[in-house]
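[#protein-structures] MJ: dropping Apolipoprotein A-IV-like here for a structure pass
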Amino acid sequence: MVQESHTDLRCQSAIMKFSLVTALIVVLAIGCESVSLVKRDIPAEIETLTKYVQDALENVKTHQLVSQAQEYLEESKSQIAPLTDRIQEHADKIQEQMQPYFTDIEGKVRPLAENIQAQMSPISENVQAKLGPLTENIQAQIESFQAKMKPLAEDLQLQMEKLYQSVVDQTKAILASQ
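AK: finished. structure tokens for Apolipoprotein A-IV-like:
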């Protein structure tokens, strides 16, 4: 890892040197063509050169940040790995130690649960047997009530529609007379 970061630093240094040498070459080339610069648009050339240098520096900075982030992540992983291994070992030991207790508790609780279920089963069947006819009776009464209420509800709806129409007609008559 140390060798990788040392190699990255050399690579970054080489990139920076290359960018600076390139910028210097471009500046010298522009200086050598000073006769033709009179005819050119100097601010546009300077702006292009400035943009090129800024892009080169931004690329170098981005590469450095990525390298630093990767180094940090690798270092963090190497520090956390032993801790997670130790935690897993402790968890395994605790589970190993607790397994007999869990087995013992399950052995004691299972017969109790089966006994309770055996006692509750007849009670549940009895309740269902008694509630079945009651439920059917209530359902029949509800259906009978609905059958009786339906004509009343339809009649009420018809009367409300007539009342509404009457109010609308009277309102139209009052508005027409004004």
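MJ: nice. The chain has one domain: 2-177.
AK: one more thing. DSSP finds three helices and no strands in the chain.
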